[in-house]
Amino acid sequence: MKGLEPQRSTMLGAETTARANVNVALIKYWGKRDVSLNLPATGSISLTLDGLWVEASCQFGSDADECTIDARPPSDDDRVKLLRFVDLVRAEAGIEARARVRTTSSVPSGIGLASSAAAFAALATATSRAAGLRLEPPALSALARRGSGSAARSIFGGFVEWHRGERPDGCDSIAEPLRAPGDWDVRVVVAVTSEARKPVSSRDGMERATASPLYPVWVETAGRDLDEARRAIAARDLEALGLVAEHSALKMHAVGFAARPPLVYWRGPTVECMHRVWALRADGTRGYVTIDAGPQVKVLCEATDAPRIADALRDVPGVARVLVCAPGAGVEVLA
Ligand code: PMV
Question: Which of 27, 109, 168, 197 yields a CA-CA distance of 20 to 30 A from 282?
Answer without folding.
Answer: 27
